[in-house]
Inverse folding.
């Protein structure tokens, strides 16, 4: 059965979509069949990172009886994109029963090993419901007070859903591995103090100008900078995620 991995953040601009795209490609390169679902329902933009132009969207799958295979767009190295919509208020404001229906339809129709959900920033009800339904969650954050505070808010809501055991904090744009570990320890200490339960750690994503260049080129890292330290970083993270799911 397909594994759902949710990529979320408390605030925007911390590299969540970049992480979702490149992590999906790293998992695909390691032999997994992967789809990336743009779960920023109202302002979808993952297609920009992958350089594709959708003809159909998640709205067609949910509201207009399109089959999942017709909505999926083949991207670089065989990963597929399930595009969201931009400016679609019906998709942006799904009520809880529709969210549950969407997730059930995705599980039933998907032939993927892994489906990555690129979830909109923030703690809206829709975001929280989708994230809670995932089998594991990666909360992306950077070393800024607002990002730390907002990431804590996301984690606190997952604690209320009893999902902390499968929730991982992913520090981004850190100068080295030790800096990433230190940032995680800071947040984990906060969680232990106020919610009494730790989050988990897989690793951190390093600051690298090649990522910014790949975004500007509208090309994923393995296409534009296959020898970059960032791409190697994503491959290492993908291996850890596979091991986590298979143990």
């Amino acid at each position: 059965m397909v594994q759902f991995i949710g990529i979320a953040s408390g605030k925007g601009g911390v590299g969540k979509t970049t992480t979702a795209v490149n992590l999906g490609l790293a998992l695909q390169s390691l032999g997994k069949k992967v789809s990336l679902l743009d779960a920023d329902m109202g302002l979808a933009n993952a297609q920009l990172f992958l350089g594709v132009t959708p003809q159909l969207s998640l709205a067609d799958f949910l509201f207009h009886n399109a089959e999942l295979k017709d909505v999926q767009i083949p991207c670089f190295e065989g990963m597929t994109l399930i595009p969201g919509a931009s400016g679609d208020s019906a998709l942006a404001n799904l009520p809880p029963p529709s969210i549950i229906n969407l997730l059930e339809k995705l599980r039933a129709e998907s032939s993927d090993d892994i489906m990555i959900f690129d979830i909109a920033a923030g703690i809206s009800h829709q975001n929280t419901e989708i994230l809670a339904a995932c089998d594991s969650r990666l909360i992306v954050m950077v070393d800024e007070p607002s990002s730390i505070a907002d990431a804590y808010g996301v984690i606190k809501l997952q604690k209320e859903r009893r999902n902390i055991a499968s929730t991982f904090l992913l520090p981004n744009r850190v100068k080295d591995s030790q800096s990433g570990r230190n940032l995680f320890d800071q947040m984990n200490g906060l969680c232990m103090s106020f919610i009494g339960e730790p989050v988990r750690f897989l690793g951190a994503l390093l600051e690298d100008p090649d990522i910014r260049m790949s975004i500007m080129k509208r090309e994923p890292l393995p296409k534009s900078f296959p020898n970059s330290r960032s791409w190697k970083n994503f491959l290492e993270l993908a291996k850890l995620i596979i091991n986590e799911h298979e143990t």
User: Anything to note?
Assistant: The chain has twelve helices and eight strands.
